[in-house]
Amino acid sequence: MAATATFRIYRGDASGGEFVEYSTETYPGMVVLDAVHDIQAKQAPDLAVRWNCKAGRCGSCGAEVNGKPRLLCMTRVDKFPAGEPITVTPMRAFPHLRDLVTDVSWNFKVAKKIPPLKPIPPESDGAWRMQQYDIDRIQEFRKCIECFLCQDVCHVVRDHDRKEEFVGPRFLIHLATLDMHPLDTLDRRPMLREAFGVGYCNITRCCTEVCPEHITITDNAIIPLKERVADDFYDPLQWLWRKVTGSKGRRRLPVVKA
Amino acid sequence: MTEARFETHEHDVLIIGAGGAGLRAAIEASAANVSVGLVCKSLLGKAHTVMAEGGVAAALGNVEPRDNWKVHFRDTMKGGRFLNQWRMAQLHAMEAPDRVKELEGWGALFDRTPDGKILQRNFGGHKYPRLAHVGDRTGLEMIRTLQQHGIHLGMSVYMECTVSRLLVEGGRVVGAFGYWRETGRFVVFKAKSVVLATGGIGRIFKINSNSWECTGDGQALAYLAGAELMDMEFMQFHPTGMVWPPSVRGTLITEGVRGEGGTLRNKDQKRFMFDYILELYAKETAKTEEEADRWLAGDRSAGRTPDLLPRDVVARAIHAEVKAGRGSPHGGVFLDIFTRRSAADIKRKLPAMYHQFKELGDVDITREPMEVGPTGHYTMGGVRVDPDTQETCVKGLFAAGECAAGLHGSNRLGGNSLSDLLVFGRIAGEHAARAAKGAPAPAVDDGAIEAASREALAPFAREEGQNPFALHEDLKDQMQKYVGIIRVKEDLEEGLRHLERLKDLAGKVKVEGPRHYNAAWHQALDLRNMLLVSEAMARAALHRKESRGAHTREDFPEQDKGHWSKVNLVLRKKPGAEGEGEMDLAEVPLPEYPADIKAVLDEG
Fold first, then answer.
1. For residue range B143-201, what is the model confidence (pLDDT) as tens digits?
2. Which residues make Cβ contacts (< 8 Å) with residue B221, sequence separation at least 6?
3. Pair B278, B304: CB distance under 8 Å
4. Residue B514, preceding peptide bond in cis (omega within 30° of 0)
5. pLDDT score for A162
6. What are the φ and ψ backbone dihedral angles of A88, each rounded to 5 degrees?
7. CB-based contact B547:B540 (threshold 8 Å)
């Protein structure tokens, strides 16, 4: 007889819901999304789940498996102890729509608030020149597939619901990308401190831990952003400079060249 | 008044589909200062463009200064076995470099050459290293760039919204009818022009590399609205999909693996591609492994490795090796990169491949070969458009990207889809905006809206009927079996009989449950489109009595130099037919080459 596994899937919508147990056949290499699809095809045709590429590339199928935020398409069933039910629930930090689907529209609203790249003019051939070593670190951030698992796990969003004051790890790495971009000319640091709330992050690194693209979100993106903001706004020399010059805004101190 | 019954939005230009082509069209139309609505079946940024891996083809000449649009044009025509619309191939080759460069001004970051320019890699059928890329996630970089640029231009984005019908009045498109995935409620869009950018049809095959969205929506919507479909017999089977484990069968492995030096071998460790060199490519292809290795090492006087022949050739070769019993344990062949590149190189240039095999296939590609086999990937066919404007024969209706036909002829070169969607997305957006400026205010017909609403709700009303998921599996099985990579008359006829049976069953599909986020309902509604494009493909495949590019007929194995080299096949709804009607198939002569284009082709 073929092997089977049991899945406890949260079913319901904003008005309420419950866990429903399904048992389905397993096969080599099976991922949790396969199981959800098999259950959908044969047992629960109206089971709601979001997915697209089924290759870990689009970031649509984020949910929580045994309480941990994961991509359903990259979570192997055989990684879990045989015989124990596998629990699948929607991402908790976002409003619930139905079954495994949540309302992630907040993320798209945040994206719109971030001023886009404002590049220096291109060279005469219409192209820009950049060195690979200058873009290596931001290419890491550009790997982001916008699955929003980092947003889901971040306690500032998940437990404290600071969605108005804080943009979350996903958009902090986007801001870091722009801040470290060799072509960009726009200073977003005042916004980082105020509108985007970089100070809310207290470096628990939960986002880095769940990132399916293994982006070092906290150490490579958020901490450097915090440092820049701290340099600009809390550096005593900067403070003195502002006092002396009467400048209200942030201003670069003159650079002393060796 | 019907309109009051349904949520209604009005735009100058409505774009259906938000992959690369739709987003690029939306950006261009927004720049023309018209009101733009962008409808996506999924969330923004999740469209199948993210699965494009290897790169975007553009004759930038950054790595090989001898490259220019003429060489790219010739490669594209040759890859399509000259069934391409030459004007589209010309525009594509000429404009692609600018389209790629402008992306960097919007935030894209391609890998670099030592002098700081955009790096380019080798790919099948491209004479010179031509593919701008970011490791093996080029599509993601492009869609994210277009998305991050586009959202600040004032367009309205309608996410998780599916269009089920175009609204046409007096031969002019006036809008679209659809439903919200989330609530299941209907929505009407009034628009002066509409751009279809819905992508592909891969979900009609059992083994495919496509997401649930790729169900031929644009092709079917256009057909039902009276537009023409062209080149539908040409379905690209990408040579390298995963074959094991079953969970990931069909998942794409980028051609970039071979672009970075990867080689195909059969179970006897033989580099079998040397046995399948097409006459058309004999001159430029290496004769021995030693010569191919020299080319891979950078010796430009050596012939190219046959592993990088165009996709149709490689897919057929793999199929033949497996059929002859020389395949790998799970019915594919071997592709190795670890013998060619260091582990560090592989992880840097092919990180997604490394990750994908490690997590899903239990294979470490820095130490072991991959098992690969053909997977349904891309349709060269689609909506017939005017090359210069991308307009269809329905006034105000445009199409761009994979859902449009013409650029690729009978076989697409890798990398030409990402450039296709940039070049023709922009052209479609520009002309759709221009058409909207001169168009009358759209007047939609209540009757058409009511009919669309009845059609969409029908599956809920049935007392009993088929499960839509089971029906989809059935369709995929029949298409794989009878209209797949190798075709023959009897099979195609059998396939068409199955399609008749399935059409009948699809009319009786039943769904239950509430309307909000109901997967079975969405599947039921997508079936109509999948059946329609399947039928178009089977009919065209049966009609074309030769083998050319991606279309292989066992009973007509040769590529014809006469009649079939001069015609495209065009399908349309029989005039006056109600509903889906009967399909009319016509042979349409290829446009003749002007003298200057002929001269460019002869140079090669």
1. 999 999 999 999 999 999 999 999 999 999 999 999 999 999 999 999 999 999 999 99
2. B16, B163, B165, B166, B176, B196, B198, B529
3. no
4. no
5. 96
6. -125, 120
7. no
Q: Does B141 touch chain A (CB under 8 A)?
A: yes
The residues with which B241 forms a beta bridge, in sequence order, are B252, B373
Provide the token pair at B334: 């071997």
Report in angstroms the alpha-carbon separations of B144 from A141, B139, B318, B404.
12, 8, 34, 23
State the complex-level ipTM: 0.95
pLDDT, residue B575, reads: 78
Q: Among B53, B109, B211, pick the best mutation site for testing chain A contact (most A Cβ within 10 A).
A: B109
Give the whole-angstrom CA distance, residue B201 versus residue B379.
Answer: 7
Give yes or no: residues A57 and A185 share one domain.
Answer: no
Kindly give the parts of chain A with pLDDT less than 70: 1, 247-258
Give how many domains chain A has, as a whole number: 2
H helices of B225-378, where?
A: 256-259, 279-282, 289-296, 311-323, 343-349, 351-361
For residues A69 and A138, state if they share a domain: no
Residue A250 in any domain: the answer is no
Residues of B in contact with A74 (CB under 8 A): 359-360
Query: Is B551 an active-site residue?
Result: no
Which residues constitute the domain of residue A170? 105-245
Is B258 inside a domain boundary?
yes
| Shared domain check, A177 and A61 | no
Which pLDDT score, from 0 to 100, does residue B581 have? 66
Beta bridge partners of A62: A71
CB of B94 within 8 Å of any CB in chain A? Answer: no
Helical axes B519-543 vs B217-224, angle rounded to 10°: 70
In this structure, are A28 and A54 located in the same domain? yes
**Tokens of residue A174, six digits:** 């986007």
For A171, name the nearest residue in chain B, comparing CA atoms only. B148
Catalytic, B300? Answer no
Whether chain A has a CB inside 8 Å of the CB on B246: the answer is yes
Which of B238, B384, B426, B544 is flagged as catalytic?
B238
pLDDT at B578 (0 to 100):
58
Token pair 């090989």 is at which residue?
Answer: B64
Q: What is the mean pLDDT of each run of 10 residues along chain B (604 residues)?
A: 78 98 98 97 97 96 97 98 98 98 98 97 96 96 98 98 97 97 97 98 97 96 97 98 95 94 97 96 96 92 96 97 97 96 95 94 96 97 98 98 98 98 98 96 95 96 91 98 97 98 95 93 97 98 98 97 98 76 93 97 89
Q: Is position A29 within any domain?
A: yes
What φ, ψ does residue B32 adopt, rounded to 5°?
-85, 10
Give me the residue from A41, A130, A138 closest to B116, CB to CB. Answer: A130
Give residue B322's domain range.
Answer: 237-376
| Out of A29, A129, A131, closest to residue B361 by CB | A29
Domain membership of residue B273 (yes or no) is yes
Could you say which of A99, A119, A145 has the minimum Cβ distance to residue B105? A119
As given in the structure block, the two tokens for residue B255 are 């051609």
Show the tokens assigned to A114.
Answer: 């971030």
pLDDT digits (tens, 9 = 90+) for B250-267: 999 999 999 999 999 999
The residue out of A78, A102, A126 marking a domain boundary is A102
Domain boundary among A40, A70, A102: A102
pLDDT recorded at residue B1: 46
Q: Select from B519, B537, B477, B539 the least CA-distant residue to B502.
A: B477
| Sole residue written with tokens 């023309």 | B32
Contacts of B107 in chain A (CB under 8 A): 116-117, 177-178, 181
Specify if A253 maps to a domain: no
Q: What is the CATH number of the domain that holds B366?
A: 3.90.700.10
Phi, psi of A99 (to 5 degrees): 45, -110
